[in-house]
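Page 42, continued from yesterday. The earlier attempt failed because a stray header line got pasted into the input along with the sequence. Redoing it now with the clean sequence only.
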Amino acid sequence: MAQKLRRRLVLAAGTCLALLAGCGAHDTDAGRVLRVAQYPDPDELNSQQNAGSQVYMGLCEPLTGLGIADAGDIRMRGAERVDTTDGLVWTIKLRPGREFQNGEPITAQTYADTWNAVAYGPNAYKASSTFSVIDGYAELNEDQPRRDTLRGLEVLDELTLRVTLTQPDYDFPKIIASYAACPIPKEGLADPTAYSQAPVGNGPYQFVRWDRNERIVLKRWHDYQGEVPPGAAEEIHFKIYQSQDTAYRDVQAGQLDVLRNLPGGLLNDARNQLGDEGLFAIPQQRQITQMLIPEYIESLQDPRLRKAISLSIDRDAMAGALLRGSATPARSLIVEAVGPAYRADACEDCTYDPERARQLVAEAGGFKEPVFLWYSNTGGGGGTEMSQIALAIANALRQELGADVRLRPVLPAQLTQAQSSGTLTGPSLSLWGDIYPSPDQYLGMFREGGDGNEYTQYDNPAANELIAKALATGDELQAAQYWQQAEDLIFEDMPGIPLFYPGIYAAHAPCAKPGTLGGDLQYYLTAFECGPGREE
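This time it went through. Structure tokens are written below.
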């Protein structure tokens, strides 16, 4: 049930949670090695450069953490409390005695130095936009930056940081739960390139080595004072794969303990081969597959053509026959896990109605140019399924609307580069997931400055105003009304066409029990009961 936040929002530290019992307790069963899949070999390990780094999740203790039972809940980790009276100015009180694994103390100045460095445009941190909500960010990211520190950061004392935002934003405690907001030690700020290859963290595990294209090794840091999962492994070996299919076969053969993001095409096989004891459905799933239409594609700027594309797609048939029940049709731009802002049928043009689609195409004067449909032809979360989706959509547009559709399959990195640089020649199929559960993580790509906006370059001032109102209220139900009104305005232009909510599963050994935080499986939370002596 939605809870109305009090005018004075105070988040304070509590006791260790049951799932993560034994805070700071030592694992006496030394030598136990958890083997997990890493696909593919990453370029960097720290989340300031690699937002989804599962390696860094084990190395870092953020200030706050997302919930276990409810992804939207916030609890304290490196912070004792985070409070505000107006959503604009926030005070963060750190836990005393925290330090990095090299012995360097963690203070309020540590966070100020880290956030300033990551936010500063010339430093080229990929996670820079995490701090776009803080006053002064825009000046750090001009062509010729006028300053190199955020005006909104003020160190009050050794353990107290005051943060002033550009506008009220009650998502702020969730933003700083992001691993992109983790502290970086002095040596990491002095040499970011070296740090991205061998990070020094402040969390339950520490980096040991990286054998390129083979494995990344972490080991328990027993001086860690925070949350440690029960039965935590003494070491985690991230085995690097070029194919998720190969990783899955290793789970079957007993050579791998956990594979997250099991490809949907392998789901039925996993049910038959591994059974309930070897298949884990990730709760509160927070991903959406959608078609994004950049504003610079002039031939598709007419909303009637975009709506016609959506109306020609039979989501229900595709989800059942094509995706074999591994996904559910999406008719909203956001996901259910974000709370009352979600509406299952927010999009009236997301039903299958080819007759109406043809009418809209005729009103718009038809497709005057070929439709180039971009998608990733391999990789996590996409792979074979994305190729099948692309082909099915192309066939529907050809048969129902007479469109000249040309498929543009590319590697995942190529698709991301084209999306980010604004060099697509048509719409793209995209799998999108949030960093923290909030409607803004999904509608942000449809407003300038929001996460993922480079993919669409869409901006709607009226919708932006509603989004700002939603972020500025501490009343979740009132905010939900603003979110829904903003989504309705965005759907009028249809820069994004929701397609499916993919089911997210992990394949695992029976003695390795995956754990989640904030609705996301994190390898280091695996409850490990496989016993010692399993090093490769």
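Notes: The radius of gyration is 23 Å.
Reminder to self: strip header lines before submitting.
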